[in-house]
Amino acid sequence: MTGQEGIGEHLKRLARWRPAEVVVWLAAFATIFLFPNRYLILTEIAWLALFALSLDLILGYAGIVSLGHAAFFGVGAYAAGLLAVHGLITEPVLALVVAGLMAMALGFVTSFLVIRGTDLTRLMVTLGIASMMYPLSMQATALTGGSDGLQGIVIEPIFGVFAFDLYGRTAFIYCLVVLFLLFLLVRRVVHSPFGLSLRAIRNNPLRAAAVGIPVQRRLVAIYTFAAFYAGIAGALFTQSTALASPDVFSFERSADLLLVLVLGGTGYLYGGLAGAVAFKILQEVFSTLTPQYWQFWIGLVLVVIVLVGRERLARWRSLPRRWLSRSAP
Fold first, then answer.
1. β-pair partners for 162
2. Of 40, 121, 264, 303, which residue is the least packed, with the fewest Cβ within 10 Å?
3. 206: Cβ contacts below 8 Å, ≥ 6 apart
């Protein structure tokens, strides 16, 4: 067996669905029937999981650190809102794709700035990009509604059939289906030679360049692709809540996203999903116990995670990873 054939077989093994993965997704779709009174928080978990997945693509697989991922989320959110308000595209699914493409365009333009320099430089550049978007959204009141946000957002029924109801059932099913379909796509991407090259770049970009991997082009491609996913997540937020305000560009949104990945782990596809579930459950519990100080308790959880130690945390996070990666008998 040649080297290329060996790599191909390895990628095929990675791409095979494991029984544990099937169980995870069956459980996710079972929540539609198991928790009929929790559709709102389940919807939040769905679009947050997609948002976290987009950041994990650049952080966990390509090694690009970012403190401004909310910029793409916000562009997608406002794009979906503006398309609905002005009646330019009334079909939610088509508007979703267009919103993602607009965020992707911003990702492509800014990627050439982000991929240069060290991790600290990337942190500052991504933070700067998101920091510019927030005041711009506050000043462009004719377009964004300023601090009040967009008014009069009405989302039409999906495919003209499935109307968004007050209980949030349609919104949750919609977000969950979109999350699953996009997860299938990204799963195929990371288990391809392209995904393998990203891991090589993350581990040692100089060595990756030495063996012929076009490092800059790979980083631009994955950053642009991740921006598309973040824009889709933002559009889902607007379509499921009928809201779009400058808050979608806030630093806190990017910081919360990093916290989600700290809780779930980076570098494997289910980290963002697990982190989104954990974050929302913690937020729900702490905000119920102490509504004014729930952020303090989440911060305390972070401190505890740090004090536990990097090695113990890695072992704890590797348990679901090993479970989901176990080969089928």
1. 158
2. 303
3. none
Contact present, 229 and 100 (Cβ < 8 Å): yes
Statement: the pTM of the whole predicted model exceeds 0.90: no
Neighbours of 288 (CB within 10 A): 9
The length of the chain in residues reads 329
- Tokens of residue 66, six digits: 């970012």
Per-block average pLDDT, block size 10, for the chain (329 residues)? Answer: 59 76 93 91 95 93 88 94 90 95 95 80 85 87 83 88 88 96 93 89 88 90 95 95 89 87 83 90 83 75 67 56 53
Beta strand extents in 106-145 (DSSP E only)? none
DSSP 167: T
Q: Which residue has the tokens 């973040």?
A: 230
As a whole number of angstroms, the distance between CA 251 and CA 70 comes to: 7
Question: Is residue 57 a contact partner of residue 215, using CB atoms and an 8 Å limit?
Answer: no
| Burial profile 194-214: b = 16 or more Cβ within 10 angstroms, e = fewer | ebbbbebbbeebeebeeeebe
Q: Which residues contact 268 (CB under 8 A, 6 or more apart)?
A: 60, 321, 324, 325
φ, ψ of residue 243 in degrees (nearest 5): -130, 145
313 in Cβ contact with 329 (< 8 Å): no
CATH topology of domain 3-325: ABC transporter involved in vitamin B12 uptake, BtuC (1.10.3470)
Q: What are phi and psi of 212, to 5 degrees?
A: 100, 5
Distance from C-alpha of 146 to C-alpha of 139, rounded to nearest angstrom: 6
